[in-house]
Amino acid sequence: MAPPRVCGGLRVFAATLKRVTRRIRVLRGENPGGAARDTALSRLLLAAVSRGDAPECLRVWRPRDALAFSVLDRTRAGFASAVSAAREAGFEPFLRLTGGHAAVYTDATVAFAWTLPAPEPHRGIQERFDVLAELVAASLRDLGVDARVGPVAGEYCPGAHSVNARGRVKLMGVGQRVVRGAAHVGGVVVVGGAARVRAVLGSVYADLALPFDPAVVGAAEEEVAGADWSAVANALLERFAARYEIVDADLDPALVAEAQHCEFRHRVVCG
Known about the structure:
Layout: H1 8-20, E1 23-27, H2 35-51, E2 57-61, E3 66-69, H3 71-74, H4 79-88, E4 92-95, E5 103-105, E6 109-118, H5 125-142, E7 147-149, E8 163-165, E9 169-179, E10 181-190, H6 194-208, H7 220-223, H8 229-243, E11 245-249, H9 253-262
Parallel strand pairs: 1-2, 1-11, 3-4
Antiparallel strand pairs: 2-6, 3-5, 6-10, 7-8, 8-9, 9-10
């Protein structure tokens, strides 16, 4: 008797089971430094995973006030003025690891960096974006936010995988960097302090001559009472735990020390 055929639905279910068995290290330790050092650490983790020297990991942390500029931003005529505007508002300017345009980090945002092996990194770009955006949106919905995947008109650092609330205000932006054998998917969820984000991005985007509507900057706490930093961070980790096997781990002190020596690559010296 011929073996029974495996239908498409069962193949999808089997693939889902395979994904659930993946183990992800969750790095909770804070990096004692600013945004440039944070970014250097992400670069080093990406290189380590690419070489096979480190396993898949997810870092979730509370960043310091910083303004993330991209390589594209650096080519614009108003870049130096935008950097000065960020500094005057109390935000450390730095060069981000991924593309896109300027975005804000504050101590009222949840920053994340997911670094994973990727034998064919370019072929999986869309899927990684899809998975991460939906995990963030689902975690916010768990808290009662009407969170949806997709851009809103006039948003900062526009992208198809932004997460918004009610289709009206942006809550999360995400970017991706791929190297041979690995990928980094990182971004930030605005939990509170939306007024500060609106103000500094208004100045920065004006200097960069990029379209931006401050009214579409949102925050989780403006959508649902009690959606504070810990609640959002924990909800995101719970969503990862529902899909994958996650284990707590500490940042390697040697890697943190190396990041201190490499952070110059992400500093902005003009402005």
